[in-house]
Amino acid sequence: MPVTINGDGTITGASIIQPLFFGIQDTDQSIPLNSTAFTKLTNFSTSAVTLNTGSSWNATTGRFTVASGQAGTYKIIGAGRLTGQRRQRIMRIGISKNGSNPTFYMEELTKHSNSETARFEVQTTVIQIMTLAVGDYVELMMYNGESSAQNTGKEGTYFSGYRLSE
After folding, report:
1. What is the DSSP letter of 100?
2. Positive or negative CA dihedral for 106, 115, 28, 143?
3. Distance CA 137, CA 126 (A)
4. Residue 48's pLDDT is what?
5. Quick count: other Cβ atoms within 10 Å of Cβ 70?
6. Which entry of 16, 54, 88, 97 is 20 to 30 Å from 35 by CA?
7. CB distance 101 to 146 below 8 Å
């Protein structure tokens, strides 16, 4: 069906996609050292930017659960910032479905060959198209490849999702 702009300004034949959830991390979160798996990101509270269409987004736990009648194909976006990185370290950010470790993730490698006291931040974004059924849930997860626990940078850590189709 072609997209048409009618004389009164209305649009027919187009799906307008609006975000279902969006939250920016409200507080920094400690991510354990690299001997552990991915860590679920939390604290996307309402004192930062938040959107919760359909009341399926729990900003505190960082979990979006598909409500009745909302199954379909989703575009899920997550970004994470990790502070305090030194030398050559890896940070990974991925989207978990139903509590499993991410099978697809983005990786950022920090490279610094000088002093171990030099500190800097890394940030990366992951975007994934997922088919979700009623009751499925997604969460944003991070892996810290540093040799000690590091904190997220709340200003650069966010999680969002859009329903693309039924």
Report:
1. P
2. positive
3. 17
4. 61
5. 18
6. 97
7. no
158: its two tokens: 């966010």
Q: What's the pLDDT score for residue 132?
A: 95
Predicted local confidence at residue 49, as pLDDT: 63
Residue 24, CB-side half-sphere exposure with 13 Å CA sphere = 7
Q: Cα(16)–Cα(112) distance, rounded to whole angstroms?
A: 45
What token pair was written down for 121?
A: 């931040």
Query: Which mean pLDDT values do the consecutive 10-residue runs of the chain (166 residues) have?
Result: 67 64 89 82 76 83 92 93 72 94 85 60 89 96 84 88 86
CA distance 141 to 47: 21
CA dist 5 and 14 (Å) reads 10
